[in-house]
Amino acid sequence: MKSTTHRLDRFISKNTAFSQADVRLLIAQQRIFLDGMLATSIQQPVTQFVQVVLDGKCLQANQPVYILLNKPKGVVSATKDLEHSTVLDLIHHPQKNALHIVGRLDLNTTGLVLLTNDGAWSRQISLPETKLPKVYEVTLEQPLTDEYIAVFKQGIYFGYENLTTQPAYLEILSDYTAKLSIVEGKYHQVKRMFGFFQNKVLALHRTSVGPLSVAGLELGQSRLLTTEELATIFSSTKG
Ligand code: URA
User: Fold this and answer.
1) E-only strand ranges, 37-132
2) What is the pLDDT at residue 145?
3) How would you classify the pairing of strands 157-158 and 134-140?
4) Where are the beta strands (DSSP E) in 156-215?
5) Which of 17, 84, 179, 205 could make an S-S bridge to 111, C-beta 3.0–4.6 Å?
6) How far apart are the first and last CA of the chain?
7) Domains identified in the chain and CATH numbers
8) How far is the CA of 77 from the centre of ligand 1 (A)?
9) Sign of CA dihedral 155, 161, 163, 167
């Protein structure tokens, strides 16, 4: 989840035999390029995705990767697990071992999981202020009533975290099924919200996160996010 930013002089001393003090001279001698441009200052920030070339040798060239997976049941939202297969086992990407998960789903929950190597992006997705709606299809053990709609909209007190959940929107689809939209991702949040009514969640499927959707993907399938999705993911939540 780390997305470290170094100053250029620290980056060079960490990744080469040159010292921090040498970097001023290397810059003056025009030996360092950042994203194809001559470096101009020892203080230039070197983030995870800046390409750094010294004397024609590439020291860093990471590409950001953003993957959307439709997670099946029984697959763990983790990168390693001794007992179950993990979401990473379902990904076939050359940089898959550098990926982390953005917003986990429980073992038996299905649906949309995001994976990336871009820590700044995943932090922004997860920030409560970003208020990206996460939509779930829920199947319950007991019949639903309109009371759920009002209570979820008002918020439910979670004693463990000492907080009240942000307004959530419930659309009742049938006696036992509903669509729930929440903007947070507290531990077992959906199950605990229905737990307020002592109503057990029998099946849970996340269909979307903001404008991103699993539509068109079979369970177990994944795809890269499109340039348009990346450009617009946060714009729907402003204001
Ligand atoms: N809420 C839950 O209870 N479980 C999930 O997997 C996701 C949200």
Assistant:
1) 37-38, 45-46, 52-54, 57-60, 66-71, 100-102, 110-116
2) 98
3) unpaired
4) 157-158, 163-164, 169-172, 177-182, 201-209, 212-213
5) 205
6) 27
7) 5-60 (3.10.290.10), 66-232 (3.30.2350.10)
8) 11
9) negative
Q: Rounded to two decimals, what is the model's pTM?
A: 0.88
- d(CA 238, CA 232) in angstroms, rounded, equals 11
Q: Angle at Cα 60 formed by Cα 47 and Cα 231, nearest 5°?
A: 50
Reported confidence tier of residue 239, pLDDT bands at 50, 70, 90: very low
Ligand 1 centroid–CA 234 distance in Å is 22
Question: Is 229 a pocket residue for ligand 1 (Cβ < 6 Å)?
Answer: no
Which are the contacts of 143, defined by CB distance < 8 A and separation ≥ 6? 175, 176
Ligand 1 neighbour 190 (Cβ under 6 A)? yes
Is the pLDDT score of 1 beyond 60? no
Is any ligand 1 atom within 6 A of the Cβ of residue 165? no
> What number is the average pLDDT over the span 173-185?
97
Q: How confident is the model at residue 2 (pLDDT cuts 50, 70, 90)?
A: low
- Using only C-alpha atoms, what is the Rg of the chain? 22
Question: How many CB atoms within 10 Å of residue 135?
Answer: 19
86: its two tokens: 């993990």
> Cα separation of 37 and 44, whole Å?
12
Whether pLDDT at 182 is above 60: yes
**Helix (H, G, I), strand (E, B), or coil: what is residue 206?**
strand
Q: Is 118 a catalytic residue?
A: no
- The CB of 109 under 6 Å from ligand 1? The reply is yes
Contact 63, 48 (CB under 8 A): no
